[in-house]
Amino acid sequence: MKRFAIGTAACLAMTAPLSHAADWQPSGPITMMIAFGAGGGGDTQARLIAEELEKRHGWKIIPQQVTGKGGANLARKLKGQPADGTAIGLAVTETFGYNMISAKNAGYSAQDFTYLTSTAGSQMGVMVRSDSPYKTWNDVAAAAKTGKAIKFGAMSPKLADGTYLLGKSQGVEFNTVMLNGGKGVLDALVAGDIDVGWGAGIQGKAVRAGEIVNLVSGESERLSLSPDAPTTRELGVDFTFGALFLFVAPAGLSSDAANTLSKAIGEVVNDSSTKVNAFINKGFGGPKVIAGEALLQYVLNDGAAAKRLLEATSK
Fold first, then answer.
1. Which of 11, 169, 249, 315 has the least CB density, counted as fewest CB within 10 Å?
2. Which residues of 118-140 are buried (b: 16+ CB within 10 A; e: fewer)?
3. Binning pLDDT at 50, 70 and 90, where does residue 23 land?
4. Alpha carbon distance 30, 111 (integer Å)
5. DSSP secondary structure letters along 154-207
């Protein structure tokens, strides 16, 4: 297993301190790499942020899809770009934690990036169709204990591990079905190809419409749309499976550029008059803006938790 160890000097190199931002301006167009497929929740929020930044600051921003490998393709491409603020990327903490640590050769390290700001959490949950015979998580567990083969949709290896640990906590095994993204899981659930599945905010509209029900929260707290659904920790699994959407830049970005970009993105996300704020409130339970040293510490903690998760699932 690849070990996750970052010394103090390396940690300091990974992000710029949040000092007073100067009047920094990019030297040219900003390429905004997006680790998510076109039309999905991550892609939509990135493009709405780009639109608002252009309007407010006059910056030219070019959204660019760089998908695949759980954000690893984006990370590998972004790390080699100039550290001058003209290249940033939107991924999730999993890209710099679980996916990086579990890879035999990720091709990048946590030290390769400046961590700018997060935008939102994932509202990760275990969902079923509202017409499912399973009305609670206990119903799913009880059916599995009788020998019922439960097909459980997941869209990442980390969530497959979560499926395994949820089953282990009940003394059962679920049939994990790997699918392409949250939309793939939701589509398979609606089609009846799986019984339950992980969703990261994409299920929000269907939950509000009464078509989908969240049975479990994969976050550290209960879901805003489904406050009655217990968390994985409440079910005896000592891990969470949510993530933060976050913007990063290549390592070595100046503090002026980092502070200006972080502040500009955070203001757009937190402003209740913007389209992206409305979108994040609707799909992801509201903005979750963490920047600077606090974001760096979050990424480090997430990496340490990922290491423990990998150890737990290898036993």
1. 315
2. bbbbbbbbbbbbeebebeebeeb
3. confident
4. 22
5. ESSHHHHHHHHHHHHHHT---EEEE-SHHHHHHHHHHHTS-SEEEEESTTHHHH
Q: What is the distance between the alpha carbons of residues 114 and 102, in angstroms, rounded to a whole number?
A: 21
What is the edge-to-edge ordering of all strands in the sheet holding 113-121?
61-65, 30-34, 87-92, 244-250, 113-121
The answer to whether 200 touches 123, Cβ cutoff 8 Å, is yes
What would the pLDDT profile of 80-117 be if each residue is shown by its tens digit? 999 999 999 999 999 999 999 999 899 999 999 999 99
Backbone phi, psi, residue 245, to 5°: -75, 135
- Which neighbouring-strand residues pair with 244? 121
Question: Would you report the helix, strand and coil content of the chain in percent, each value rounded to 5?
Answer: 40, 20, 40
User: What are the backbone dihedrals phi and psi of residue 131, each rounded to the nearest 5 degrees, phi first?
Assistant: -95, 10
Q: Which residues contact 201 (CB under 8 A, 6 or more apart)?
A: 41, 120, 122, 123, 124, 182, 283, 284, 285
Residue 270: which region, alpha, beta or left (left: phi > 0; alpha: psi -120 to 50)?
alpha
Q: Which of 38-42, 179-183, 258-262 has the highest mean pLDDT?
A: 258-262
* Cα–Cα distance for residue pair 166/59, rounded to 1 Å: 46
- DSSP H or E run through 147: none
| Contact status, residue 167 vs residue 250, Cβ threshold 8 Å | no
Q: Contact at 8 Å (CB) between 255 and 19?
A: yes
